[in-house]
Amino acid sequence: MKGDIAKDRLQSMVDLDIRFDISHRPGLTVVEFEGEDEVVFSNYLKANFEICYTLDELALDLYKGKLVDVGNYGFGIFCDISSQKEVLISLNSLREVFGGKLSTREYIFKKGLIEGLCVDVRLTRIERGTGRVWGELDREWVKKHLLDGSITVSMVELDKLKRLINGTSFRNSIKIIPLCESSFLLRCKEGIDPPGIVHLIGSGIREARLGIVGEI
Does residue 205 contact residue 158 with C-beta atoms inside 8 Å? Predict the structure, then answer.
């Protein structure tokens, strides 16, 4: 689980037929348990804490995550897949997936890569000794979702987004596609101006992060 969680805290919150012990790693609490109520205990942990992968559990496979530190570094962006370490999506990786020789900031701007955007990322390299992890945006995910003219939205609740759009004349002109609980794609009907929709949402939901895919 993410964070430094004390054993006493779990003990005081759980009254089950279970035996458990915990250990700590940088940024993580590892819980080992057994007993008749282990399924109930497992469900309790999943419901109340952020479960994550240790470095030893990671594989060169596909994971779901959220983009973080977007625009902070020239060498790439990071993706939080709920693991011990965040995944670096390097500038070279962006060039391989999207093509061209743009800068990190240019890819961010042109592909709608915003903070908190939920994506599929494929791990390409894991250094367990140094604790570093590399990956790339999954090409099938990119092909399916990052279509020109799409609007990316993150850090907002679906109900709030729906209420805002439904209260305007655009309610029948925009399709909302959920990527996760706080991240969405908007598809606009032909003739609808994406920058205008971005302005509308940005002024109505201040905490939202927004981007536009393609040459707009």
Answer: no
| Same structural domain, 74 and 132 | yes
pTM: 0.81
Q: How many domains does the chain have?
A: 3
Query: Which SS3 state, helix, strand or coil, does residue 202 take?
Result: helix
Residues 6 or more apart whose Cβ sits within 8 Å of residue 73: 104
Q: Would you say residue 40 lies in a domain?
A: yes
Asked if 213 and 201 count as a contact pair (C-beta separation under 8 A), the reply is no
- pLDDT tens digits for range 107-154: 999 999 999 999 999 999 999 888 899 999 999 999 999 999 999 999
3-state secondary structure at position 164: helix
Work out the number of other CB atoms within 10 angstroms of the CB of residue 52.
18
| Maximal C-alpha separation, the chain | 62
Assess whether 16 and 44 both reside in one domain.
Answer: yes
